[in-house]
Amino acid sequence: MRRFLTTLMILLVVLVAGFSALVLLVNPNDFRAYMVQQVAARSEYQLQLDGPLRWHVWPQLSILSGRMTLTARGASEPLVRADNMRLDVALWPLLSHQLHVKQVMLKGGVIQLTPQTEAVRSDDAPVAPKDNTLPDVAEDRGWSFDIRSLRVADSVLVFQHENDDQVTVRDIRLNMEQDAEHRGTFDFSGRVNRDQRDLALSFSGTVDASDYPHNLTAGIEQLRWQLQGADLPAQGIEGQGQLQAQWQEAQKRLSFNHLNLTANDSSLTGHVQVTLADQPEWQIDLRSSKLNLDNLLPHHSAVAQTGGAVSQGQNTLPLTRPVIASRVGAPPYQGLQSFTAEIALQADSVRWRGMDFTQVSTKMSNQAGLLDITELQGKLADGEMSLPGTLDARTASPRIEFHPRLNHVEIGTILKAFNYPISLTGKMSLVGDFSGADIDAEAFRHSWKGKAHVDMSNTRLEGMNFQQLVQQAVERSGGDAQQSQENMDNATRLDRFTTDLTLNKGTLTLDDMVGQSSMLALTGSGTLDLVKQSCDTQFNLRVLGGWNGDSNLITFLKETPVPLRVYGKWQELNYTLQVDQLLRKHLQDEAKRRLNDWADRNKDTRNGKDVKKLLNKL
């Protein structure tokens, strides 16, 4: 036994010494030119290795190099570069001075997919015919992936499409395995930081490339993502999901089926398809059980123009994205010109600006910059809303038109949602047409135009009781009429109110105002300044109820309109009420009537005739 172990140890020492001598005698730099030639012959890429090559024997026999680059023919920048490269090689082929690489590992690797890294065809290179009618054969697979196992760690990917901005994916970790039939699994994670936003993305699933390039399918079973940063809700956006993806080469079509995605407390299911023609053609059909836009979109509360105070509940302004210099002069909505689309969305519930909509349905189509919103409707509490319209972005000056139709919608909810400090409630019905150049609440305040007819029911305006104003003014003037104890709150109520409104760059004109209730009737007109948050309105009031007594003055006030002007800031309203003139006129008319009655009874007397003559002169 001792002899056997001694013989084994001697043999092991000889083998180790022999292999060590082999490694020492074989110079790895002898393979430099061979590797460069093989890479160029197989892929037409130029491999460049900086610094000497050296051996690394533990735990795997490897060749180490310094900085490396891989550049396409004619490209101005390398496609791949790395600080260090390690080639794990097989030992036995070295006996015949052959190099067999089992694995390539890069440290500090950077992959760039940009126009600068693309191959440039030389002027004298042959050009293939555009219309190739020959059928594809099995061997004609174009790009192929013949590595059974691929692992990438701590790497960077930079890609750019034509003149678009570069996108950098950092901290990449990728594991891919496949069988001989090109069916495999993958696991990816990475992070994108751009424009003060950070996206963390990870997904895993299966892929079937057995019919590539004709057909490629992938199933993403675990998708997780988190987006934080500028122009986003404070808590960020995170979600997960699953989907099936398919690429069809003949149709140049990419499909996403069985979509099931979540984002914060919102969810989306459905189907998305894009055909990659000269202009991509999108087909989008989505459904949501809950869509909370307040948790997905940045919500900047309006700042009062007069006081500069931020609206209630907003103590600090959120971080906004930086303005990219190259985009400053770009026309708004120009992205719509680059594709066509058919979009359908149905949602059981949608929350936007604090408003809870139900049974929301949207249908729209985009034809290279002409967005036609044929259907955008839903329910808001007991009311219904419809907002069809068009957005024409085919020129440098976009034009937007909407044709709102509202039926019994609570106006107080809308005023609160858009930060208008007007304490008005009631069910509003509206039919109108509006146009502007930007879909934005501030743009609507400043630059939109349009007309509409408004019909409201059960309205209540807090802060001013028109009926009380008239009755108290009559009492102060010493009139023989007193108000009852009904309707003593500080609000004006109307059973119905109608008006025709015109919007012109922040000025809202109200014409033909008519209001009616059991206590009050009014007519009038006026203007509201949406930017300065002020108003100037003229009313003619008739107080029909709430009087004590049955005097002639009460009858007179019920039948005679009382002029009322309401003006000033919405939160500091002023008014003028012309009651004294009416009471003076009423007293004059009453005195004339009584004198006329006395003169008629004494028409045969001299005094009666004199009074009659005096009245005729008046």
UniProtKB/TrEMBL annotation:
Q: Spell out where the chain crosses the membrane.
A: none
GO BP annotations of the record are:
regulation of protein targeting to membrane
Highest rank taxon of the organism? Bacteria
Signal sequence bounds:
none
Instruction: Tell me a GO cellular component.
Output: plasma membrane
- Residue ranges occupied by any AsmA domain in the UniProt entry: 5-186, 193-512
* Stated name of the protein: AsmA domain-containing protein
Q: What is the lineage of its organism?
A: Bacteria, Pseudomonadati, Pseudomonadota, Gammaproteobacteria, Enterobacterales
